[in-house]
């Protein structure tokens, strides 16, 4: 074996380590990130133990609150730095992440410990942890780090996305004049002949996104502008685009002209008057207003019969269908986030469809959803057929016999249709080739599910009664 080299720094020996922690991420000498996942897993186990102290099987906070705690606390903790280590997870990483997630799924659902992880994920509406972390990694990479992601995920490039601005757009001592921004209805200015009135509007319909403004001077419509934005732009972006084009137009008018821009969207006015706005377009508007104090911006009530606002609204509606394309407004953050979020269930669905575990639940729930079902613990136990059933326990070598004490094979279906001890809640037994259809109907029938719940509760409370002789 070759001895590792000795490294010194100013006379001090630098010891070789297998891993080190930097900014909350454990980097190991193999760069396979398993050390980081193991450390995060240890932290997650401690959190899960704390969770057990505030909620048990039939006491403590409700299932939906535990679900919320997992999504908002546990997943957020595990997702730290995911863009560095979970962009393309390996098989080992996926398996380890699944083992970290499993105890939480069991605790939230109250399911039997042999229940497949894939089934619990579908029932609870919680995607496999690898997909959640991949989503975070992809979003952080393209939006914050400005690193392109593979084209099979999206063709959108980082330069197509709207950047989040930080800091001050100008020196903190520079601010707008007190009379430049008004949130009171500016309709009174319209009657004045010495003021150029400009009306802006932005709109999003099923036809697209449009922005427009029109200019009223001495009761004459002197100018109008409209454009069609990308269908993926937001109404807020359309409003800001219209206001931006309006202030550019007003800034080019002769200096002796006073302009009043009427906007029916308070959010765009507030963003444009804030020198620390995170929106780049709003910052551009602020700088133009700062250098042109004769331009005023006031709010006007929408759809209140104001002739200028109604005209701008009509121009915007026309622009959504026939306007000139406007490519200066970049795609918003919600667009790329929604695009990546939409892809996650698709990948999850493929995994669920092609999986080899949880097939009993798959026959009832073939499609995944990000929303949890309204099943409680007893529902999960019965329909997954993993629970205090002798046939299931013997399959996992947890019992020596698969017979019920009544003499029949102790399956979930047996207790729901045949067992003499649960006759009070019996349902008609289906033919063997209709069992899956029967389970689907029972799962979708609240009265039948109530019977199932009573059966499972009775079995759980009287286990000695159901033990095989």
From TrEMBL:
EC main group: hydrolase
EC id: 3.1.26.4
Domain of life: Eukaryota
Coiled coil: none
Keyword annotations: Endonuclease, Hydrolase, Metal-binding, Nuclease
Domain RNase H type-1: 192-321
Swiss-Prot/TrEMBL GO biological process terms: DNA replication, removal of RNA primer
Protein name in the entry: ribonuclease H
